[in-house]
Amino acid sequence: MTQTTAGRPTGEPAQRKQRAQITARTLRTDRWWLAPAITFAALASFLVYGLWAIFDKSYFVEPYIAPFSSPCLATSCPEGARFLGLAPFGDWWTLPPGILILGLPAGFRLTCYYYRKGYYRAFWLSPPACAVAEPHKKYTGETRLPLIIQNIHRYFFYGAVLIALVLTWDAVLALRDEHGAWGHFGLGTLILWINVVLIWSYTLSCHSCRHITAGRLNHFSKHPLRYKMWTFVSKLNRRHMLLAWLSMYSVMLADLYVRLVAKGIINFPLA
Question: Residue of 73, 248, 257, 268 with fewest CB within 10 Å of its CB?
Answer without folding.
Answer: 268
